[in-house]
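Write out this protein's structure.
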Amino acid sequence: MAATEVAQAKEQLKATTGKRVLCALDNSDNSALALQFVLDELVKPENGDKLILFQATRAVDMYDDAELGFIADDQIAAAQERLVQLCLSNLKSIKAGIQVDAELVALPGDPRQLILDYVMQHPVDMVVVGTRGQGKFKSLFLGSVSSYLVSHCPVPVLVVPNPKTAATLLMKKSDIIKA
């Protein structure tokens, strides 16, 4: 689907429904904080808003794990499917506890690319992620889903900080202002 077709589909959908927010989850405390922020501040069932609960699973790859080199392809595929089903099961339990309409998406692979691909192919108004809390140095080596999405995503990306980290930064900022 071309970018203009996606844009037109988004406009048509917006005319009949509320906003569509993709919240990327990874079973971390920070992604749980991001989800809580989305539920408290962004999506409202009375507005017809829709939440997309998105989780990327680790791709099972025989080239990344030497032990898998001796396992049949169908067993690797079955292991991958079990991982996806586990993620979907977790997302279903989250969906059961919320009041807003939610779509569940669990796919194997790199979350940075999977989220971008999903946004390009589906109407999404905003992406919300939590911080991983690795700091600047580690994110240089490991990459960061949030910083990648901020740089490459065609829709706004909201990065929800960890309150402990944010409080520490605010304390440091207040010390600078007082000086």
